[in-house]
Specification:
Chains A, B: This is GntR family transcriptional regulator. Chains A, B: Residues 1-68 form the HTH gntR-type domain. Chains A, B: Keywords: DNA-binding, Transcription, Transcription regulation. Two copies of one chain form a homodimer. Chain A is mostly helical and 230 residues long. Chain A has helices at 3-17, 28-35, 39-52, 70-94, 97-109, 115-136, 139-156, 163-181, 185-208, 220-223, and strands at residues 55-57, 63-65. A two-stranded antiparallel sheet of chain A has the order 1-2. In chain A, α2 (28-35) packs across α3 and α5 packs antiparallel against α6. The longest helix of chain A is centred in the middle third of the chain and has 25 residues, at 70-94. Chain A is globular. Chain A binds a DNA duplex (30 and 30 nucleotides) through residues 2-4, 27-29, 37-41, 43, 59-63.
Amino acid sequence: MRASDRAYATLLDEIQRGLLAPGAVLAEVEQATRLGVSRTPLREALGRLASDGLVAQQSARVTVVTAVDAGDIRELFEVRRALEETAARLAAERGDPRAFADLADAFAHATIDGQDALDDYYALIARFDRQLDAAVANDYLTAALRTVRTHLVRVRRLARDNPGRLAASVAEHRLIASAIGAHDAELAAHATHVHLHNALANILAAVDEPAESATTLAPFGNAHTRKGAA
Amino acid sequence: MRASDRAYATLLDEIQRGLLAPGAVLAEVEQATRLGVSRTPLREALGRLASDGLVAQQSARVTVVTAVDAGDIRELFEVRRALEETAARLAAERGDPRAFADLADAFAHATIDGQDALDDYYALIARFDRQLDAAVANDYLTAALRTVRTHLVRVRRLARDNPGRLAASVAEHRLIASAIGAHDAELAAHATHVHLHNALANILAAVDEPAESATTLAPFGNAHTRKGAA
DNA sequence: CCGGTCACTTATGTATACAATGGCCCGGGC
DNA sequence: GCCCGGGCCATTGTATACATAAGTGACCGG
């Protein structure tokens, strides 16, 4: 594996997990030393993160992890709605009914009690996303969705996974999968719309009234004073 | 301006203009020498082009300009429809009515006779796109649309700008702009859908029955044998 | 004569040295 | 005491040297 790939993967993971908080300064020599690579592959990694929108050049001399506020989340979901409704529609037209019937079945039997069950559920969603991409068979759409999903990982950290919402989410996914499996493009699109509406509402409720969790993404005010994990 | 920016801008322009045809091999030392920069900034430029989807690493040793076939164009327009319909809807909800009323007026008076009028028309479309981005005020959507538009520049080279299609395109843009100016989100979205349907049909007609133009993007068969402008 | 293997060439990937620029601090003057 | 200017330092941007691996061609063996 290339050093630049390792640097990218590591930084991406740390940003998504919140270890590198919004506003954290990413100095090239510092990060290169920390990750055990030279500046050249590190710069490539930073370039990819910048193209993803996860870091930005605050000024000519300082690169920081971008912040995510409620407005950003609304914007992100506007794009997500557009792309995922389209994906659901196209998958319903083109997808293998069997694959999505199987997924609908898996969602029907999914549970959310305990960490193991939760991990299984998240893995199931990942499988659903992969099937969706495969069914749509559109590289441009998949690439656009990849960017959205990259940001979503960070956004999800802001939402509290309350059991009620999780149970509803399971049911929503089941409906989407079964609609795609039934070649019902309209239902798939509308069910996706509803699912994303509910998911956004849940996230915004958590953001507007922040949890006491220490992992909450820092607001702009003190963010730029935080340094990367040294 | 940074050397990497110049290299990126130059290569982007050459790919979009077809000077670097699909399949053209982009060797680092060769291109670096040609563009008068060292390999480091050139690699950064190639990385950005790869993230745009304009070049791809065919194997571990060879980077080529990506090809565009009719299937790619259909895929691209699926994403474009999703994003631009959303953009039109959001602009209708949020945009400054005056700005789009002015644009509608400009489209109403636009002409397409002669190269100067055509240049003016393309500039007007660019102005429309900028106003749309400003009205939508969504960085994620703007970024996604930027990628689509980057590819569209190449796709447009495939379409013949026949007068009938151009006249219809003017009218379609006028309707979209006026719908946004009237805060009519539904009409704006549907008019965008119709416009993109017509634009795609026009392009596919040209691609399926290629013109005699020497600038037609080369098919895969002989493409990989072409070298970059040396 | 054909196929396989090894070495060589040439490309990319990485590290490091050099250049240039922007910020910051200190000192002086108003 | 505050503001402005100059010089120093740190950081990014670029070039180049080095490492590594993949592809190619030639040579040897069957």
